[in-house]
Write a structure and sequence with these properties.
alpha+beta, 8-stranded antiparallel β-barrel, 9 strands, 37% strand, globular
């Protein structure tokens, strides 16, 4: 299952600190202390937008987010950054077991419109399986920066660049 957390951050002065915290201590705590958090990677929409940030986490189940270990590791909390987080939405998706890494020269595309073919691109269609159910299904694909540039004008597609390498839980 893929747990996606999307949001915006409203204080430009603190944004770099928040990104360092989220991509560092926050993900380290979740991956190091919560059985069932397997991998995580964060992204930012290359065009900004109302909800520019997306964190994708590979998790074992919906129930994981109700556990005490998740809450103890700071799950759902962003400390003193919390007042600046807006448009916060969380959804768990089924349909993809492993979270693939997006390298710095690649982009993650997220499609929340009706499924349609994109020649030469493998889109994985996920189904909403828990939490906010923001969309009933979502397409995700990893593409080159050149492919992403060609898709920029497509309606209903977000193009995101990685903020950090894929982080894995300690085994």
């Amino acid at each position: 299952m893929i747990y996606m957390v999307e949001c915006s951050f409203t204080d430009p002065v603190m944004e770099d600190q928040w990104n360092a915290f989220y991509s560092g201590p926050k993900l380290t705590a979740l991956l190091g202390n919560v059985d069932g958090f397997r991998q995580s990677q964060r992204f930012r929409d290359i065009d900004g937008g109302d909800v520019p940030y997306l964190a994708a986490h590979e998790v074992v189940s919906n129930e994981l987010l109700e556990t005490q270990s998740y809450k103890n590791a700071g799950g759902g909390s962003f400390l003193h950054f919390q007042p600046y987080i807006k448009n916060w939405r969380r959804t768990i998706f089924s349909g993809l077991d492993r979270l693939p890494e997006v390298s710095p020269d690649q982009r993650l595309i997220v499609i929340d419109s009706a499924p349609k073919p994109f020649p030469g691109i493998t889109v994985h269609w996920l189904r909403s399986a828990g939490l906010g159910h923001i969309v009933p299904s979502r397409g995700v694909a990893i593409v080159s920066a050149e492919q992403a540039a060609a898709l920029k004008q497509e309606e209903g597609i977000r193009i995101l660049g990685p903020l950090n390498p894929l982080m894995r839980a300690r085994q």
